[in-house]
């Protein structure tokens, strides 16, 4: 049955099928029947693809029929995924003023490996090693970034460090995670039907996951009141869990989680909610899409306890510093900031002997001190190590990496 629907759907989407089959295209954006764009290499290009008004409406209804979700004048929005795993969002007129609007974010089986992200210039090996150690030490991780910055791709990569023998519960509203561990339970939320019944929310699934004996909980994205329940879980022994959220900086990430937790309807003093956020989150990995279309990890930061005024504190451990933009793209370098994380002792006690103080010293690593970062460097007065080259190729970001 699914093969039949798949072929029918491809027939309805005939004007853009060639882009769906092109691995170089990451997103297809249909703004109107005669206004179709694609994303390639992080940049948007207008195409000559054209739909008829009846054809694009038929394609939208075919998508809704395949996933078994309502799409009508009463419910003019659809969020789901296609048979190949690609994520779709549909908006019908008159909400969409220029006609049926469809976004197709393509699914790439297998995801990306840390090696690929390094080769693309999206991260450096010292940053990869720190993230791997943080995951193995069961620190709670949040991946933050704007729309299209590569959060889900990065979460896939981060979750690949979870040991194979651990029991993992994944929770998503549209399945995009591609974990390969053996002991995996994948849960997907469900919206209400046309009669307003049958909804299963992320919050419902999070409650269920706590009764399924998880070693790790991985939530594709927190965007509502379920954030409060996640904080409760992280603060009551479910360490090593991870999620993504929309935020641009590490400190803004904590503020965002606070705002989402307040949507739960639980009445607690603001200071108490902030304390929950600060206590639950250990590591924040921020990513961004730059003007040349490349995506990079901009911060790896540690969340600290609240200060005496009750404000959030973070300290940046690694940052990306942009130095120039030329015809080849954004230029810059990844470097530690000289800030020693509070969880250093935990990593050393777990056998990660490389994370001595010098690991976090940019001068010792042969790199310039980043000009902008949160926290206090412990190495500002030290000289560079004489045996290290300041232009080490595995820590300098490439000019125009491939898309992810």
Structure description:
- The protein is of the alpha/beta class and 404 residues long.
- 26% of the residues lie in helices and 24% in strands.
- The protein is built from 11 helices and 15 strands.
- The chain has a 9-stranded mixed β-sheet, with helices on both faces.
- A hairpin with a 2-residue loop joins strand 1 and strand 2.
- The longest helix has 15 residues.
Strand order within the widest sheet?
9-8-10-11-7-12-13-14-15
**Cα separation of the termini:** 32 Å
* DSSP summary, beta strand count: 15
**SSE order:** HHEEEHEEEHHEHEEHEHEHHEEEEH
Label the overall shape. Answer: globular
Mean pLDDT: 88
- What structural class should be given to the helix and strand makeup? alpha/beta
Largest sheet: 9 strands, mixed
In short:
With 404 residues, the protein is an alpha/beta fold.
Quick tags:
404 residues; alpha/beta; nine-stranded mixed beta sheet; six-stranded antiparallel beta sheet; 11 helices; 15 strands; 24% strand
